[in-house]
Specification:
Blueprint (H helix, E strand, L loop, with lengths): L15 H35 L3 E2 L21 H6 L10 E9 L12 E10 L4 E7 L4 E3 L5 E3 L2 H19 L5 E6 H10 L3 E5 L4 H14 L12 E5 L1 H9 L6 H22 L2 H11 L3 E3 L3 H9 L5 E8 L5 E6 L2 E6 L2 H12 L10 H14 L2
Parallel strand pairs: 1-10, 2-7, 4-11
Antiparallel strand pairs: 2-3, 3-4, 5-6, 7-10, 8-9, 12-13
Helix pairs in contact: 4-6, 4-8, 5-6, 6-7
Length: 375
């Protein structure tokens, strides 16, 4: 008999198409792994930066939300109960207080006045952000049943009292804040490579004059004058000085508009910046802000940063209810009808305010302001 041994079965040879598909799948797998690794590194990096932030834990039990004064000894419980309002029209919005403090030594807590007070209302579905400046000299309840300029609330009790001041007077539900000083704004703008601002002929002299004090306060040995009007790329010192201008037509009200304009320009620049520039800006700003936001909240906000857009902006008191004068020798801004002003504020910020009327707390504050000032 001849040799009848059988050949061992070998592996089936892949077709060219199968080999290419396998190679493609392997490349995709590697790309996914690299991307996941990148996200992990980015998350760890943000966590490390977050450690540089001055973090303030604010207990929600201490925050006034739409129903009178927080301290129980200031009003009867029955008064607090009657102050409750329907806040359903604020569902789907995140309201955050933004404070800019006149700090020369990077002190961001109480003891320093908040020259900038802005409510940022974020529509969580559309990502549109509306900004409302509360004018710093507005005569209001300071969150502790005393009355004075709005910016004194931060000086007296830090961000907690300032938040309560906003919630009490304006029927808001703010629980979080971000505070930044001059240095934080200037350094962030420099890290972004400057911002584009339209400088008018009546602003340029004041801008340059303010640069003298601003540069000195920030420990800078020199500054660069703005020499032309029109669209200019302003550096940090120039932009902060632009924010401080209050001696043109419109006074402090126009200054609030400039501050909103600078915020818009910073967001525009950040959205178009590359990773390296954003990294530099993050390193800068995270060391020079104070906030109540948690790490998770910071990450959530950063994840959507490209989706945000600043929509309409406004001020409180509204122009048609705004007057000025003195109280106790201090120059103040007054709302001639706080109740109506608050109603208009909510209609401006929130899409559906059907059924909303200002709380009895707001009505009481309105009456108190009128009796104390005659406005």
């Amino acid at each position: 008999m001849g040799n009848t041994s059988k050949k061992k079965p070998g592996k089936k040879r892949m077709t060219k198409a199968e080999r290419e598909r396998k190679k493609r799948n392997r490349i995709i797998l590697i790309a996914v792994e690299v991307f996941v690794l990148f996200l992990m590194i980015l998350a760890l990096y943000i966590v490390s930066l977050y450690g540089k932030i001055e973090k303030t834990d604010i207990s929600e039990e201490d925050i006034v939300i739409n129903q009178g004064i927080a301290k129980e000894d200031m009003v009867d419980e029955s008064d607090i109960e009657t102050n409750e309002i329907s806040s359903g029209h604020m569902d789907g919005y995140r309201n955050v207080a933004l404070f800019g403090v006149d700090s020369r030594d990077n002190s961001l807590g109480k003891g320093t006045r908040s020259d900038t007070i802005i409510i940022a209302s974020i529509n969580e579905e559309t990502k549109e952000v509306k900004l409302v400046s509360v004018y710093r000299d507005t005569y209001l309840n300071l969150g502790n049943d005393s009355y004075g300029k709005a910016n004194a609330a931060y000086a007296q009790g830090g961000p907690l009292q300032a938040i309560n001041m906003l919630n009490m007077n304006l029927d808001m539900n703010i629980t979080d804040y971000v505070t930044v000083g001059w240095a934080g704004v200037a350094d962030t703008i420099d890290a972004l490579g400057g911002i584009d601002i339209e400088v008018d002929s009546d602003e340029i002299t004041h801008l340059n004059n303010y640069q003298v004090e601003t540069s000195k306060s920030l420990g800078k040995s020199s500054f660069e004058k703005v020499t032309q009007t029109g669209m200019q790329t302003l550096n940090g010192i120039q932009a902060v000085s632009y924010c401080r201008i209050r001696f043109t037509e419109g006074d402090d009200f126009k200054r609030a508009e400039r501050q909103q304009e600078v915020i818009q320009a910073i967001l525009d620049k950040a959205k178009s910046a590359n990773i390296s520039t954003l990294n530099k800006a993050a390193n800068t700003i995270f060391e020079e802000i104070s906030t109540s936001l948690t790490m998770t909240e910071v990450l959530d906000l950063l994840a959507d940063v490209a989706s945000y857009s600043i929509g309409a902006t406004g001020g409180f008191p509204a122009e048609n209810h705004r007057s000025t004068g003195t109280v106790g020798g201090a120059s103040c801004v007054f709302s001639t009808d706080i109740t109506e002003d608050v109603k208009m504020l909510h209609e401006f910020l929130f899409v559906d305010t059907t059924g909303y009327t200002p709380s009895s707390q707001v009505e009481t504050i309105s009456s108190q302001v009128h009796s104390r000032t005659g406005r």
